Amino acid sequence: MNDIISNNANARLRVLVAIASYGNANDQYLERLIKEYQSMSFDVDIVVFSNLNKQLGRNVEVVIGLPDKNPWSLPFAHKKLFVERLNDYDLFVYSEDDVLITEKNLSSFLAVSAKLHEDEIPGFIRFEMSADGRVSYPDAHAHFHWNPTSVTSREPYTLANFSNDHAACYALTQSQLRKAIKSGGFLVGPHEWKYDLLCSAATDPYTQCGLTKLVPVSHLSDFSVHHLSNRYARKIGIDESEMRFQVNTVLQISRNGLKPVPLLQTQTKLWHEAYSKDYYEPIRKEVLSLVPEHARSVLSIGCGWGATERRLVQNGLRVVALPLDLVICSSAAAAGVEMVCGDFCSASAKLEKELFDCLLFLNVLHFFLDPPTVLSAFKGNLSVDSAVIIQAPNMLCASSVWNSWRHASRFRDLGNYDLIGIHFTSPATINRWCDRAGLEIETTKGLFHKKIEVTKDPVPGPMQKLIPGFLKHLFAPDFVTVAHANRRDLSVVSRSVANSAYE
Q: Do residues 394 and 436 make contact, with C-beta atoms less than 8 angstroms apart?
């Protein structure tokens, strides 16, 4: 920690805090942040960047103006300040105006920084509190998750990378900031790709400067910062109990010296990582209704946090799952879902002699290099009455086509698996994959947004045969297909084909 100590051994740590505060909506939180920083035992200078002239006291500097005409560009304004004052401070802190960072947070950051490599940085994670006092973590949503292959131990700390680099704040020591600036990726204009414009400025040290964000999971409370607005509480994110399951699994991985292998890569390289796998998918009643009534056993390929799988267990079925990784499935495993972990080849080989009444591929099949081969690999797990349920995004629905046309540069590589990591999917695509795998299609249904209640088929029954299939699903962003093994060739299929799915 020598690089962050002032040359004068008796001097206090010099800290420069930059806060982005647009408009007046969060002024009550901004005042609390300022009081917190001013109460610290460090020498703290505070600079607030805003589009308005704010009267925050003579000890707070206010800089007015936006980097460009887009209001969301405000977070980028602090970077020039950090560069200009690089040699004047030991620690640099950036945050939005409703993220409360305490002295304990910063002291813990300094202690862990002393244990890490020069290209690693301790990271924070946000928490919120609902009106009834329940704690939740809004940064854990959609495709964001703990990376089990990143788990590392630096005594006395266990750390892991969380794939969501955005926590609306970051801290850098002088040496860390110097390294970020030298990379050429720090002092840049407003931009977005992986994250939106509002989030990109706070994630650039990790996404553009060659630095890896590691969250000390063994001391998670010391790196949890309160998102004071609580605007996502009970809406987005996971609750405290779910986070505890995942963190405990990360700690177990570290203690056992495990080298867990994820099932497959599920984050795309599209704009804002569009079409990435949702690790926290909600239960879809339309999907559950397609599980055969006679089913007593289900195999789920690509299980995330397992809400659907847990519901099936509650309904009395035996559920076996190939999870996306060892961490995300931990609460589902505790609820009775049997997990078979590992990459696709090793995990599927463990199930060679088992039969299931239903196979689930919930928004995962299009991430495999060769989907028909993956489907074929599980034909040996099917009986005559088994159903294969495949859920996938409908990239030919009206909204998707409109976005692809309107923002062509963002989706120009859609359909190029080698470049973006997914195949283009539509009902016709799934039909072709099933046909190549020797599966017969029973039905395909559109899945509308969960907030839209659809009480009947959008296309009347008598008209179905007269309208092309893709028009039936024109407004459905997702769809689900039910297939069965071809009765003519339903026999034990050699699993040697499974290996080619990854070759």
A: no
